[in-house]
Amino acid sequence: MLDKMYLRVAKVLTFAAGQPLTNATGFFYLHDEFLYLITSRHVVISEAVQHRPDRLQVSLHSNATNLQERNELSVPLYLDGVPQWYQHPNRTADVVAVSVNDPHVLSKYCIDTFCGNDILKREQALRLGQDVLIVGFPLGFHDRLHNLPIVRSATVASSFSHPFNGEPYFLTDARLHRGMSGSPVVASLPSRAGGPSQCEPRWQLLGVHSSSLDVSDRDPDQDERLALNTTWYASLIPQMLPLPSAPSDAGGLHDDGGLTNKELENGISRNI
To answer: What are the chain's domains?
Structure first.
């Protein structure tokens, strides 16, 4: 039996004027009955490296009994010049929610979604060195036959309840690659009190993987990379989405500036 997590995560390709640019990862999130694709902000725009795609392409399963059948969903990033994604008021937060405006996506494709009940709040305790999984497409690598992502193991490397250096993210310890940007970071934790709900999670969503960290004074001849990564809190997602209203009213981009967090990995290649 296929874990539903595999159907929540999708490979993302970015395009500009019909030309392919980069590979990344995204996952589906349902909010007020509207569907969003969550990914890293630098996937949809980064002025620092002149990365400005105009659409995303997402590969989705079209037959629940045959995972080899798939279709490509095109998701525009702009409509009449208006950005079709939401970002957090804290512009250092490397997370966006891209509106999926096709109302038939949930009925046409075999996908599953996260929702607000899946999000682990920052105030909830995690044990020291909590094991987590990061699900995505490292360097675009995946099970091509069945269109399924790769699952990487990691541990939480900083205090989950204390934002690292005052920014709304925590660290994970794992050897990750480009192409994982936008991956969900999840953990299998005991069910919360209060009994089952309509969206009772098996996996709880901790955050959105962004990038690997490095230190500016590291001697590459003597010191290996830290193998630490930034994960932005999943609690940012509902904060940046609107109160009940049509996603087409998005326009979530306040300006076109690139990321200001210098710790985010530099450069855009075929994988982000």
So the answer is: 4-249 (2.40.10.120)
